[in-house]
Amino acid sequence: MKKQHISHSQNTAQLEAKISALEATLLEKEAVISEKDSAIQKLNQDVEHLAFHNDQMRRLIFGSKRERFIPQVHPDQLTLSFEEEVAAVSKAVKEEQEKIRVEYERRKIRKEHPGRMLLPDHLPVNEIILKPDQDTTGMTCIGQEVTEELDYTPARLFKNRYIRYKFIAKEDEKADQKQVIAPLNRPLHKCIASANLLAMIFTNKYLYHLPVYRTRQMLIQMGVTIPDSTLESWIKLGANLLRPLYAVHRIHVFREIYQMIDESPIKVQDRNKKGTCHQGYMWVRYAPLSKSVLFEYYKSRSANGPIDDLSSFRGFVQTDGYSGYTFLAKKAGLTHLSCWAHARRYFDAALKNDQERASHMLSLIQLLYAIEAIARDQNLSHEQRHALRLEKALPVINEIGAYINEHKGSVMPRSPLGKAFEYCKNRWTSLQNYLTNGMLEIDSNLVENSIRPLALGRKNYLFAGSHDAAKNIAMFYSFFGTCKKLGIDPQKWLKYVMENIHITPAENFKELLPQFIDKSLLQE
Predict the structure, then answer these.
(1) Are 521 and 504 in contact (CB under 8 A)?
(2) What are the Transposase TnpC homeodomain domain coordinates in residue numbering (predicted)?
């Protein structure tokens, strides 16, 4: 019996050992399977991530640049769980949203075709009388039929010959006799170009983005050949002439209480980098209250240099989501505003990834813009716009915040929608700050619009010839951008400035700036 008991114990121990070995093997296989599942899940996420970025790149290259969002409503579509939760939002907020939608999506009256465009009355008229080829002897004229066409006279060059008479007093017969002669005020000393011609050269280069050689070809067609080196010299001297005015312009833009800031790259030739171009940056400010544009060239994208002057700034600064701006929120006396247009782009990019939730967020953001459209259409004052935003926009923003907090845990952080939620969450305070004052804008699109000439210019001249040339680009883009915002003809403004800058005291340079100049002085 004792032997049988020992044998049974041995068998039990062997079985337990085999079971333990099998369990260990199963655990190892489960760990391997779990590791493979994790690897597969990670690969799927990577594939989805790469597919998203590939889709975004194809959209940038081939797709439309418009960001219009049209909500897609499917009456027969089943309601998802998160939609049921959204439907539980307070009834009062929904009613307010519907009122905003109805007012914003008002029907547009279809206008009849206005017919042929009427030509302006201020244009000179060249009358051409046409008589029938037939013999009209003995016939009675019963009226006229008048047809107008818009004609064009090619540009032409001509010479201004200044003849100045010199006088001396009759009693002065000494060698050091004093002569009396009319002063000659010209933009550039010992330069044959007039202010009008120089203004044309500068507007061709910095407003219409024409390389200098194209302007030279235009002049040749008009009968005068000017060497490239001479044109380049005129551009350099003209830029130096306007440099003090640019410094005054910068001072006044920096004094604005509300500024928008953005940056954009520009390639610059550098003697120290053979075979390649230096990557510089144009930092752009826009002051919405005075409609002033300021470009500044810096060799780096680092935010420390361009906004060091904000150390003593007191007011509002609006930017995009660039991480270099994050420290602005911590500066005393400075209110940092983020851009709802950039936030909207993240949700627009997430539409294919999560149609339902991204569409819901875009619909809410669309309501915020509908409120802005109402304020703009009704030409509300800053105080009225502030009150309208607190009444209509604040509840919508609160709903956006609640929706983000409710759903951010149910999406992958690396997914497009997860990134959109994270973008808004990290900038939530600065996204709401536009509600604090009616003079503030919901986004920084105005400064983005000011950068467009730089993007057009880069396609034409490809790069700046030097760091000094990049600074000249910044200066003229600042002047011409401000003229455009204020509805001023840049060439007329520049002509007037170049004719008067020598006779204007430095303390009165402000009166030459586009945002302060008397527009009646620019009328010819």
Answers:
(1) no
(2) 53-128
Handedness of CA 464, 474, 329, 440 (dihedral sign): negative
Q: What are phi and psi of 262, to 5 degrees?
A: -150, 170
Distance CA 334, CA 329 (A): 7
| CA gap 285, 300 in Å, rounded | 16
With CA atoms as reference, report the closest residue to 307 among 290, 291, 294.
294
Is the separation of the CB atoms in 310 and 335 below 8 Å? no
Cβ atoms of 287 and 440 closer than 8 Å? no
- Extended beta strands in 312-421, E state: 315-318, 334-337
- Distance from C-alpha of 32 to C-alpha of 34, rounded to nearest angstrom: 5
Domains of the chain by residue range? 240-338+450-524, 340-443
Q: Where are the beta strands (DSSP E) in 346-474?
A: none
| Rounded-to-integer distance, Cα 62 and Cα 74, Å | 28
Q: Are 366 and 421 in contact (CB under 8 A)?
A: no
Mean pLDDT computed over 312-339? 81
Q: Per-residue pLDDT averaged across 152-160, rounded?
A: 88
| Model confidence, pTM | 0.77
Determine the Cα–Cα distance for residues 346 and 342; give it in Å rounded to an integer.
Answer: 7
Does the pLDDT value for residue 44 go beyond 90?
no
Closest to 303 measured CA to CA, from 279, 270, 326: 326
Amino acid at position 116, single letter:
R
How is residue 344 written in tokens?
């909207």
Residue 63, strand partner residues: none
Q: Which candidate, 256, 317, 250, places its Cα nearest to that of 290?
A: 256
- Packing angle of the helix pair 416-426, 394-407 (nearest 10 deg): 130
Long-range contacts of 319-326 (CB under 8 A, 24+ apart): 319/260, 319/261, 319/262, 319/444, 320/262, 320/444, 321/423, 321/427, 322/263, 325/261
CB 288 within 8 A of CB 258: yes
Confidence of residue 303 (pLDDT cuts 50, 70, 90): low
Cα torsion through 466, 471, 472, 473, rounded to 10: 90
Helix axes 394-407, 91-104, angle to 10 degrees: 120
Q: What's the Cα-to-Cα distance from 237 to each of 132, 234, 421, 478, rounded to whole Å? A: 58, 5, 52, 18
Strand ranges (E), 334-489: 334-337
Whether 77 has a pLDDT exceeding 50, the answer reads no
Cα dihedral across residues 226, 228, 232, 235: positive or negative = positive
**Does an H or E element contain 280, and which?**
strand 277-287
Q: Evaluate the CA torsion angle 449, 450, 455, 457 in order and state its sign.
A: positive
Residue where the block lists tokens 């294919």: 352
CATH for the 240-338+450-524 domain, from 3.30.70, 1.10.132, 2.60.40, 3.30.420: 3.30.420
